[in-house]
TrEMBL record, chains A, B:
Keywords: Hydrolase, Magnesium, Metal-binding, Signal. The lineage of its organism: Bacteria, Pseudomonadati, Pseudomonadota, Alphaproteobacteria, Hyphomicrobiales. GO terms for molecular function: hydrolase activity; metal ion binding. The keyword Metal-binding applies. This is Haloacid dehalogenase-like hydrolase. It comes from Phreatobacter stygius. It comes from the Bacteria.
Length: 315, 315
């Protein structure tokens, strides 16, 4: 005979996560660090959680979405500029020559980035990215890219914030690119977004102070660059860190290196049906060394297929 | 005949500020940007206020306090190391040879900074700075340096935060040096402190991830470097900016370059009796071009002597 259920007063946290050891590990960690007087209590001002973006908070196939933005923008520029249209890499992009595009090397990528990510004010760049996020559509899912964020990770962000955590993005993606949508997509304000960056130059234009984006690289926020930038921007070790690839290993190690309870979590893409399946051999988001270390050190390795009830938000 | 006064229910803001146009300009600005539906309303997430530190939030004489820290630390290191004690610049520092010290050039300063600010983990450096803040005493005021913060500016920080502003330090001082005391002294957490920085190197030591401070300079957060770093770290234009020298001019111009109501404020040190008096000719905190531009553009120029009822907090 069925027992009477007690009334549910508070919605259960992480509703898109299936019950199991991984969801439980998250709940246990949060319970430990928030229990006042407990041995693992962390004061709210020290509750820092850092999240990789591509492949951790949103999808990264068929290529990094910022790469798709750069190609779309290059196409737009070349289609309006006959001189540019005759020059590589714009000529191949305009022609949609996939064989040529696949062979792009450092020189072509640098030219592409300079044309699409530099030579304008920061405010002009933001407006261009914003227009792209509002209009560009993912070829497989037929949604806007900002709708290809992971519903379970949105719930995890909200759950951590409800428990006093300050949530940061620490990603190899461009910092100003991500800031355009991070606040509306993830609830993460610009000042909590850390990423790769180009240099900028201060100028007075028509009596008004502006910053002009330069083609020179400032910082690559990947691998060892992640803990270095976490220290530069945040100045505390994260209590919890979330990633999906070898590019996140140093950040996860840095979080693990602090005292007390810590949470290190990797999203493992093993769901070709609902999203994509890739790890050790992938050219994007390669997960190899970090998977071994996670297994060895008992970090949480999330199976997208088994742990996530849904992948993307309902439309 | 005197009118009956209404009962005062809420303590007046900025109690250490004398009434007058400068205090009123602050109150008016905050009223405008917080009035919902008003023409100058700024949503809370966009209320960003940036403060210079040396000479704006705490004193900077007889030299930048971080310089005094470096000398004290060099003295400590040289007194324990006979080899170092025989080498310049440590020999002159150990001997207290003021004439030699006054002649230190780039080479000596670089050696001093390398010995006192590099070659250790970030956590070791923090512990050394913390010990200094707890023990070192200012020669004139006979107080710890962290007690030489400006009471009116503490009230201004608190007043802005009470009105939804996020307060940041944007200073030429070392970011990790300032973070040691910024939270207890100003209520500004490490992730809201922006400053000059050296490079750091990620290493695994005894199985634990650490960052080692390097002697190489990462970023000088002064002059045009201030708006550049504000964009890199915050990603929004400040609505309000506070400084005291020409090193803050670009930051003030950057704040002024945004739309709607803005507050640009300069602390003018004109109080030799209670603090120090210096401006156009000073080697530390020179205020010359920024004073002209502030006058011309009607920015708030605070007279320490006339506008501040008290300078330092009561003991
Ligand atoms: Ca990733
Ligand atoms: Ca200053």
């Amino acid at each position: 005979p069925a027992l009477a259920q007690p009334p549910v007063l508070i919605p259960a946290p992480l509703p898109s996560w299936n019950e199991g050891p991984n969801r439980q590990a998250i709940l246990d960690f949060v319970a430990r660090v928030t229990r006042e007087g407990g041995p693992d209590f962390v004061p709210p001002n020290e509750r820092i959680a850092t999240f990789d973006n591509d492949g951790t908070l949103w999808a990264e196939n068929p290529m990094y979405f910022q790469g798709l933005f750069a190609f779309a923008r290059a196409h737009e520029l070349a289609s309006k500029d006959p001189v540019l249209a005759q020059r590589e890499p714009f000529k191949s992009i305009l022609a949609g020559d996939q064989a040529a595009i696949a062979k792009f090397g450092e020189h072509e990528i640098a030219a592409l980035m300079a044309a699409t990510h530099a030579g304008m004010t920061t405010e002009e760049f933001n407006a261009i990215v914003r227009r792209w996020t509002e209009t560009a559509i993912h070829p497989r899912f037929q949604r806007r890219y900002v709708e290809l964020v992971y519903q379970p990770m949105l719930e995890l962000l909200a759950y951590l914030r409800a428990n006093g955590f300050k949530t940061f993005i620490v990603s190899g993606g461009g910092v100003d690119f991500m800031r355009v949508f991070a606040e509306s997509a993830y609830g993460i304000p610009p000042e909590q977004v850390i990423g790769s960056s180009g240099k900028t130059k201060f100028e007075i234009r028509d009596g008004r102070a502006v910053l002009i984006k330069q083609a020179d690289i400032g910082s690559i926020d990947d691998k060892e660059g992640k803990p270095v930038n976490i220290d530069l921007h945040i100045g505390r070790r994260p209590t919890a860190a979330f990633g999906n690839s070898d590019g996140d290993l140093a950040m996860l190690q840095y979080a693990a290196g602090g005292p007390g309870a810590r949470l290190m979590l990797i999203v493992h893409h093993d769901d070709a049906e609902r999203e994509y399946a890739y790890d050790r051999q992938s050219h994007v988001g390669r997960l190899d060394k970090a998977l071994d270390e996670a297994t060895q050190r008992n970090w949480v390795v999330v199976s997208m297929k088994r742990d996530w009830r849904t992948v993307f938000p309902a439309r």
